[in-house]
Design a protein that fits this description.
The chain has 469 residues and is an alpha/beta fold. The protein folds into three domains: 90 residues, no CATH class; 251 residues, Aldolase class I (TIM Barrel, Alpha-Beta Barrel); 61 residues, no CATH class. Helix content is 35%, strand content 14%. Helix 13 links the parallel strand 5 and strand 6. Helix 9 runs parallel beside helix 12. The longest helix is centred in the C-terminal third of the chain and has 18 residues. It starts with a helix and ends with a helix. Bound molecules: iron/sulfur cluster (SF4). The site of iron/sulfur cluster (SF4) has 10 residues, from loops. Iron/sulfur cluster binds next to loops.
Length: 469
Amino acid sequence: MSETTTAAAAKNPSANPTTPIVHKKGQVDPASLRHRSLRTDEFWRRIPGWKDVDEATFLHHLWQEKHAITSPARLVEAVQSLASPEFIKDVEAGFHQAPMAVRISPYLLSLIDWSDPYHDPIRRQFLPVGSQLEPDHPMLTLDSLHEQDDAPVPGLTHRYPDKVLFLVLDTCPVYCRFCTRSYAVGLDTDVVDKVSLKATDERWERALQYIAERPDVEDVVVSGGDCYRLKPDQIRFLGERLLAMPHIRRFRFATKGIAVQPMKILTDTAWTDAVTEIVDKGKKLHKDVVIHTHFNHPNEITGITQRACDLLMERGVLVRNQSVFQRGVNDSAEVMTELVRKLSWVNVHPYYVYVHDLVRGTEDLRTSVATGVQVEKRVRGSTAGFNTPLFLVDAPGGGGKRDMHSYEMYDRETGISVYTAPAVKKDQYFCMYDPLSGLSARVQADWQDPAKRTQMVNDALAAAKARVI
Ligand code: SF4
């Protein structure tokens, strides 16, 4: 040991290379590292209808498409005796009341815990059951974010100064019960006739023309529907047209696919190659092209997901995640922390968590803003800041995304929070409403009375206006 090192060790014993290191932070409970355990078993073989399906078959994206569950009959065919006749009856009732068509991939269906489907977080998101449905909030409207009001051409919403949302098609590999775009996405249901947003040349040209005519737009969300449903040539076409516009600096392909059918990244090589090609072309032009995806629960992330995300990472494709905060799915700090850390483990950046929008037929999935505030407080600090999602309210009425904590006022008794969005819609106020089931019986009754309802909203707006400088 040199003289200098000896002197340093005398001053600070922990610098001495021969002294055992004292760990100031206690050893972690192995349970807190659960996010690193990714299942690699053939979990789909527990489903009686798929017990003989080998790995190569299960991983093929076309097999996944062909065996998607779209009706109670197909559900029974797959799960057979795993689900009780009472549960199947309950699902049938749910199908009839759902604003979204039902479609769930074999991948997701196999990840449901069939010993307790009522409480399973994946089942809750995709298979409605009649007995759990709650009446809609009286302030709910079908297109609660007013995407159509802010659309200069069908399927192109221009709300933020430099960004547009381009809904390129209206189909998805699965249909989520809670889809904000239940006004347009998927097939008509017993309760909703959908607005058509088909992938037609004419509609795309109108949207691309609008973007070309707007030098103020720099950012495009290419969404739908779901970009998993685009053909490789369509990805190239859209990508090249957007990259050719000098003012477009960045765009994202939005797909829930990585969460619900990750094997497509591995086996639909033409699709993955097309995305990679556009990302590479973007890099050469110094433009940012990424994928935005949508995981909501840690159980959705498996060894198959990791293989898909590894491939995307090798190809240089960045993936960000946007979750929806849902009751009985991810509305606890434990689940949300595990989700955030599991996403980070497979190199997906947790970007946003949205408080559940006001969507028809999903009151049983909504949470209050207060629950979000509590959970966010406990998630923040559990990992690096760039891997910590921002919790948002997408303000009903078209205010856009607001930091959940930035309400001008929040009356927890009536469940009304009021937001402003000065950079989006100056001088306007936007109300968000907590689910009725968490409010007192008296306030729930007041919400059913049109006069009292108007009074509660007016009082909340007046209080917010009094506070805004
Ligand atoms: S994948 Fe996205 S667009 Fe499609 S149903 Fe789900 S939330 Fe809606």
